[in-house]
Amino acid sequence: MRPDVVVVGAGIVGAACAEALSAAGVQVTVIDQGAPAGGTTAAGEGNVLLSDKPPGPELELAKASVARWPKLLATLADLLGPEQAEVEWDPKGGLVVALENADALAGFAGHQRQAGVRAELITPSDALALEPNLTRDVIAAVHYPDDAQLQPVLAATTLLAAVRHRGGQVRGGVTALGLRPDGVRTSEGFLQCGAVVNACGPWAGRFSELAGAPIDIQPRRGVVLVTSHTSYTVRHKVYDADYVGAVESGAADLQTSTVVESTQAGTILIGSSRERVGFDETIRVAVLRELARKAVRLFPTLATVPIMRAYGGFRPYAPDHLPVIGPDPRVPGLWHATGHEGAGIGLAAATGQLLADLFLGREPEVDPFPFRVDRPAVMTCT
Questions:
Q1: Minimal CA–CA distance to 116: which of 165, 160, 66?
Q2: What is the reported pTM?
Q3: CA proximity to 156, closest of 7, 4, 259
Q4: Any idea which fold 5-79+151-217+320-371 has?
C-alpha cells in the first residue's frame, strides 16, 4: 500500500510524529537504518523536563509535551491494552540543587515561574527531606513537581505499535538514500509516498543533504553510567544547577554536570556529559571518572554503590538549541522533526502533535515559527 507519509527515523521523535499522523487517519510507513528505537533513543535517560529550560520557545514546547504525555499514554493504553502500552511513566518531580551561587539558581527559577512553570524555591533542609542521601553542602534548591521520567525504548516502541495497529508499517534495516518528487529512494528500493519526514536525529544533517535541503544538525555525544541493582534511594531526578548551563552551551569541548536518578528496574543512572566529537563512539575513562566524581559529591554515600556499565549515544544538536519542526521550503513534500539534542524524549509528544497539526493544516497549540526550517542558525543552503 502506498503510504501518505514516510517517516525516516524510528526513534522517539519519529515514532511520535508517525503516531500523531496515524491518529489523524494518515497512512504512515516508518523506516530506520537500524533497529526501531535502537539509536539515540536507546541511549537516553527518559527525561521529561521543564526544570532545565529557560523561558522561550523550547520551554513552551516542553510545557505542551509534559501536559500531553499522560493523555497520550492513556490513549495508547486504551488502543493497545495497558500491558503493551506500559512505558514506566513516573511523574516523580525534579530537584535542582546548588552547592554554590544560590542567587543564580533562584533567579533562573524566578524567570521560569513568570513563564508558568511550577518552580518551588525550598530550603536545604527541605531538600534533605525530599532526598535524605543528598550532600549536606547544598545551600539552595528548587523543586519541580512536574518533571517526570519514562523508559524511552518502551515509549518509542509503544508509539510505533500504535502506528502498526492503525494499519501503518515499521521497517528496520532500511536506509533512506535520497528523494524523488514522488517518494524516497531506499536501500530496499523505491518507496512511493506523498511526503517524507526527516526524523533522523543526529543523522538528520546527513539525510538532509541527500534530500537536497541541507540543515545544520550535528551529533553531540553523551555518556551515562549505570549502577548495579541497589536499594540506594534517589526519589527524584536530581541535578546540580550547572546542568542548565551545560545544556545551553554550544561549546564543542567536553562538559560534564551532575545528574542522578533511579529507575524502576532498581538501577541508578548517572550523567551527564556533552561533547561534539562527530560520530566517534569511543568511551573515554576520564569522562566516566568525572561523572562518578561529581555524582559522589552530590550523593556522598553513592561511592559504595558499584557501577555495572556505561553507555553512550549521539544527540542531534542545532546551533541555536532549538528543534527543527516543519516543512522545508526548498523541497516540496520534505518535512523535518529533529534537533532536540538531549530533550527529545520529553519534547517528543508535543513535537509529533505540532508536526501533525502543520501537516494537516490545523491550528497548532504551540507557535511553530521559532522551530521553522528556514532560520539562519540551521539553514546551511538557501
A1: 66
A2: 0.94
A3: 7
A4: FAD/NAD(P)-binding domain (3.50.50)
